[in-house]
Design goal:
heterodimer; A: mainly alpha; two-stranded antiparallel ribbon; about 0% strand; B: about 30% helix
């Protein structure tokens, strides 16, 4: 059993579970019926990926089943990036986050295909087939909204600004990252994955004629500095004051520090599990 | 938004069949939606979307109704052809020799 592999799997699983949960909140409310089906389906895929990671984690001797690893833990034990737990806001924010999340996830999965944990590598290969479609879905929407009319385009640009700032959290180093790299579980360090993610998203923004400045928030959030306790924390991660993320930093999720938004999500998501822990559903 | 008609087929030897409709701003988006709505349970590996406005039909579909008796176009109109033939043969045998050779 390896703690650093467990830490990596927990971060991956929690990201997928929490983003999947947020996506699922659109079920019944998406802009139109066909998109409702499509987005709900993506939500199910993400939760399916989370289940696969939790199952792998349970095989490592953590003596817990996937349900318990997903739902039977306290808020501070989740290692998801904060961007995943943010409320859906309007469709423009949901879309911006969906695109950034899946762009980040595809970079991450590509790397994980050569993980030294063969089970994880095989999972990554399998998941990439679905993620390819998620990204196509996001790209298609982004391209369409970016092309106008102007109202949607403007909303999207604003939302991209705040989502980009918080996407830094997806590349916050996991706990025990050095050990995970040493062992080959994580084939590339988070900062390298982040650079690939930035290059790819910048290219798409250019293709779609979207302003490159939406990147700016990410650059600000990604200045890591050492806090008094020696942890790496965000330097100046404060996007514009009107942005929905203004009052919280983008980083900390990988160490279990979550935003206020997470508490109500957790209450909702785990309520059934907590009503009868250990029950088989 | 445009209305797109969706066609799918389950294999290379099967015909494309109409399976439903989606609303989308363009064909690219219509395909994504059609994938989710109509091939969720492995119903097909091939999908077409066609803008409804690109589909042509008769303005007056009463043209398609068959107005007169066209029973000769149907196989069932020929169901008693065997009986008729044998009746004709026996009528032929009943004729005098001279009449038969002249026909």
């Amino acid at each position: 059993m390896s703690d650093s592999l467990a830490a990596l799997l927990t971060a991956l699983a929690d990201d997928e579970l929490i983003i999947g949960h947020r996506h699922s909140e659109w079920t019944g409310f998406a802009p139109h019926i066909e998109e409702d089906v499509a987005f709900s389906s993506i939500a199910q895929d993400e939760i399916g990926h989370a289940a696969a990671y939790y199952t792998r984690l349970s095989q490592l001797g953590h003596a817990s089943d996937a349900d318990r690893l997903a739902l039977g833990k306290d808020t501070v034990d989740y290692r998801n990036a904060i961007i995943c737990e943010r409320p859906n806001g309007d469709w423009s924010y949901t879309l911006a986050r969906h695109w950034l999340y899946d762009a980040a996830d595809s970079v991450r999965l590509e790397a994980l295909e050569s993980s030294a944990d063969h089970e994880l590598a095989a999972l990554a290969t399998k998941m990439r087939r679905e993620e390819r479609y998620h990204l196509l879905h996001a790209d298609t929407w982004m391209k369409r909204v970016a092309a106008g009319p102007v109202e949607g385009r403007t909303l999207l640009i604003t939302s991209l600004g705040s989502a980009f700032a918080e996407s830094a959290g997806l590349f916050e180093p996991i706990v025990e990252e050095e050990a995970a790299i040493e062992a080959g579980w994580l084939p590339a360090p988070s900062h390298e994955l982040r650079a690939r993610f930035l290059a790819r998203t910048a290219e798409s923004l250019e293709d779609w004629g979207l302003p490159a400045e939406v990147h700016a928030g990410l650059d600000r959030s990604a200045e890591f500095v050492a806090s008094s306790s020696g942890d790496l924390i965000a330097g100046r991660d404060r996007p514009g004051k009107d942005s929905p993320v203004a009052s919280h930093g983008a980083l900390g999720g990988r160490r279990g520090h979550h935003s206020e938004d997470f508490k109500s999500l957790w209450d909702d998501m785990t309520s059934t599990y907590r009503s009868n822990p250990g029950a088989a559903w | 938004m445009e209305t797109f008609e969706v066609f799918r087929r389950s294999g290379h030897k099967e015909p494309f069949e109409h399976c439903g409709t989606v609303s989308a701003p363009d064909a690219e988006m219509a395909l994504l939606e059609a994938k989710e709505c109509f091939t969720r349970r492995r119903e097909g590996q091939h999908l077409w979307v066609v803008k409804r406005s690109d589909i042509h039909s008769f303005k007056d579909e009463s043209l398609l109704e068959i107005a007169a008796d066209k029973s000769y176009r149907f196989a069932e109109a020929y169901r008693d052809v065997v009986t008729k033939r044998s009746q004709a043969r026996s009528r032929g045998r009943a004729l005098p020799e001279k009449a038969r050779s002249s026909t």
